[in-house]
Amino acid sequence: MSTKSTTLEQFSYDNKTVRNFAIATIIWGIVGMLVGVIIATQLFEPAANITQYGSFGRIRPLHTNAVIFAFVGNAIFAGVYYSLQRLLKARMFSDFLSNLHFWGWQLIIVSAAITLPLGITTSHEYAELEWPIDIAITLIWVTFGVNMFGTIFKRRERHLYVAIWFYIATFITVAVLHLTNSMQLPISAFKSYYVYAGVQDALIQWWYGHNAVAFFLTTPFLGLMYYFLPKMANRPVYSYRLSILHFWALIFIYIWAGPHHLLYSSLPDWAQSLGVVFSIMLIAPSWGGMINGLLTLRGAWDQVRENTILKFMVVGITSYGMATFEGPMLSLKNINAIAHFTDWIVAHVHVGALGWNGFLTFAMLYWLVPRIFQTTLYSEKLIKTHFWIGTIGIALYAIPMYISGFTQGMMWKQFTAEGTLQYGNFLDTTLQVLPMHMMRAVGGTLYLVGAIIMAVNLFKTMAQGTLLANEVTEAAPLAVDEQPEAGAHWHRWIERKPIQLLVASLIMILVGSLVELIPTFMVKSNVPTIEAVQPYTSLELEGRDIYIREGCVGCHSQLVRPFRSETERYGEFSKSGEFVYDHPFLWGSKRTGPDLHREGGKYPDSWHYHHMREPQSMSPGSIMPAYGVLYEQSLNTSQTQDKLNAMKKLGVPYDDAQIKNAVADLTKQSKEIQARLAEEKIKVGADKEIIALIAYLQRLGTDIAKK
């Protein structure tokens, strides 16, 4: 048995990269929150949709991407780069890779900020970026992984602390999620179609979407909690055994829960049931993390009274506990039947995002920035102000959205004594919850003001200090043949072997993924075909792409669930076979407006013409923005044949004649719609985008009526 060398090696920690990610976190956080306030305002004031590029449908994904990948993403990297070096007693593996990671990630964010308002989107929630940006994300993520594992391999500390387990699981799982969900067939540099269609595409998306929350917004933040909370409180983690148990249980169970986003949908019942079962089980490991965090503060609650940074941590961890209790509850079918498509889900998501991710990030930045700048925090008064404004902002955001969600869910399902829908006009529910949306905007504004106060405080802190770019330290080198101490916990053996940790994490997340995905793709009975369902015409396909470009799926679902209230309101419930040619699926996740799956033939072409031009003229009180540009912009048909060719490669049964005559057929159908509009004294060019959109809307849900 060897003894560890007492010879100390001198080296330095890289604080410059940490500083860069911290500044990016602050700046992008304010940008993302500002866009959030704008879209919150647009949901009660249509005039706030100033331009085509600033409409709700286009900038809503800008908000989600900015907050998740720019604000939270940069915060993760700042925390990981700071903690990893100190936990491993080693400088990051490569300064070049650190710089490439930082600037590459910022370039990706800028690319998203440019493309999403331009309408360049895939429409997959939290994965809207087109294929070239997806490739860039892959390369930068691999860069991060190489840098992280390179640092682990050259470490001077044998033991891999619990935070590092979460970092490793995050890296491998996000890689698997991103690669699987980004399988697209490119048509041009700015357009692609998902290789999956309909039900399979929905399952892949929410397997990704739910686990993006799990492995980008949760596991890395648990790692950060395990590092920064003990440092802030000067207390050891409450339970080593609990950290082991909840880590492995969390990553195994979380991956199964995605189907709970698709309850009462066209997804096979067995997959829905699996999602429900594992979602309920998920509360145990989730609360294991919360309990381990809060009990770490035992004996330190007197500090919480005085230390505002710890207050941020306590509210953040408590918000995590609330959100992870509510998530399993929302996966129960009887509750999901009311909550899904309502503002209740918006409230749930933001309790986690604003409380857990936001407050933990704020606490980390307040603790970390003064240390790397060798100074004290500029103003204790400003940090206290930020805490209370932020906390009130969360309350004023979430509580109105809960009320709004309950109201929507109840009104949508309410019947009269005579057996008819009490609120048959969807707009009745929209108008009822407008005051709640106004309060939500106030809450969001307060939260944004708090973030701005933090920015002032931290930038002033940086200005009064000096960055310790290379923090010199020393540690003993790692003894190659060092063995675990006698009687050590069995898990110590795994902790010393990063590749085994990586492989074990991969196996854990692949089990549930493969069990859910393979049968849905391979067993034909999971998606019964409907003979009457035919591919979209070339004009309808172009109209569908306009619908996607304008982000209409952000407000309108295309999925009628099998409830009496929905079939009375919208028509026949949706069948899985109706979506077999939908690349991508457009079921949506929120109904700000009514469902559109049975829209075809419900109104004449002229109704859609006037409704898109001036929504309030057809639906008084509507909060939908006007789409006047569709009447001015000519439809671009230069890629129409390429689009049909791509669809054919994906299995859509277009024949060679349809592809060859795609533009001619498109022109013919356009003129037919133009002629019908002319009969109602409406003059519009057959080549305008509104014609294609009308064609698509009039097609929706009409196939099964032809049987």
TrEMBL record:
EC number per UniProt: 7.1.1.9
Membrane topology listed for this record: Multi-pass membrane protein
Pathway annotation: Energy metabolism; oxidative phosphorylation
Cytochrome c domain mapped to chain residues: 538-701
Pfam families according to UniProt: COX1, FixO
Keywords, alphabetical: Cell membrane, Copper, Electron transport, Heme, Iron, Membrane, Metal-binding, Respiratory chain, Translocase, Transmembrane, Transmembrane helix, Transport
Span of domain Cytochrome oxidase subunit I profile: 21-467
Cofactor: heme b; Cu(2+)
Catalysed reactions, as listed in the record: 4 Fe(II)-[cytochrome c] + O2 + 8 H(+)(in) = 4 Fe(III)-[cytochrome c] + 2 H2O + 4 H(+)(out)
InterPro entries the UniProt entry points to: Cyt_c-like_dom (IPR009056), Cyt_c-like_dom_sf (IPR036909), Cyt_c_oxase-like_su1_dom (IPR023616), Cyt_c_oxase-like_su1_sf (IPR036927), Cyt_C_Oxase_1 (IPR000883), Cyt_c_Oxase_su1_BS (IPR023615), Cyt_c_oxidase_cbb3_su1 (IPR004677), Cyt_c_oxidase_monohaem-su/FixO (IPR003468)
Annotated compartments: Cell membrane
Record carries keyword Transmembrane helix: yes
Record flagged with keyword Nucleotide-binding: no
TM helices/strands, residue ranges: 21-44, 64-84, 96-119, 131-153, 160-180, 206-228, 240-257, 277-297, 309-325, 345-369, 381-403, 438-459, 501-522
Family, per entry: Belongs to the heme-copper respiratory oxidase family.
PANTHER family named in the record: CYTOCHROME C OXIDASE SUBUNIT 1, CYTOCHROME C OXIDASE SUBUNIT 1 HOMOLOG, BACTEROID
Name of protein: cytochrome-c oxidase
Gene name as annotated: ccoN
